Amino acid sequence: MSFTKPLPTFDPRTIPVIGVDTHLSGVPARDLTPLALRHRFRHPPVWTPEHSVEKKFSSREPALAAVLIPLVMRDDLTLLLTERAGNMSTHSGQVAFPGGKTDDTDHDAVDTALREAHEEIGLAREHVEVLGTLPTYVTGTAFIITPVVALVRPGFALQPNPSEVADIFEVPLHYLMNPANHQRHEFAFEGDVRQWLSMPYSGPGDSADSKERYIWGATAGMLRNLYRFLSA
Fold first, then answer.
1. Share above pLDDT 90 across residues of the chain, in percent, rounded to a whole number
2. Residues 6+ apart with CB under 8 A from 167
3. Is residue 166 included in any domain, yes or no?
4. Which of 31, 108, 137, 179 has the fewest CB atoms in 10 Å of its CB?
5. For residue 112, what is the domain's CATH number?
6. Is 172 inside a domain boundary?
């Protein structure tokens, strides 16, 4: 059964956690360095993505899209994420990767991801080293997304587009690549059940960015696939 109309508005934070994957090992720190990631993408393992297609809950036509998974080369790698503006037509206010729908003028998914990252947050291409792509992820709103994984050289100056982005922040990659921080949820709607992951993150209590960032849905699903790729 597929949904033919949008899910009702709800706060995903209120949906109970049905499990946490503490039985799975995190990706070792030695495998979360620029050198190790370059090697992994040049010599990919045999692996299977855990999340590929969400249950459809929209009747819109499928559309190609791409997102950038930007890993900033700090002392320890961090993931650059955005909070979508509250006026967006889809997924407003949610944590997301920079990215969006493919334009006819884009050469490929990498071009889409880099263009959208520049338009949304002002990330210049010269700071980005593309490592490769992960398998496509199909959202419940029928976007067929190619995740583009890249290293980002520090020294960039970001300029968020206020019509699309409310905030930009970074999360340690080692936190996201540890399944002990991956929570499982279920939501019943019109006789069907939707399942997803969440990865809530709060910065250090004494930092300027200590509020909780609720990473869930498609963003968490693609991060889980990155975990599977790096831990295979």
1. 72
2. 82, 83, 160
3. yes
4. 108
5. 3.90.79.10
6. yes
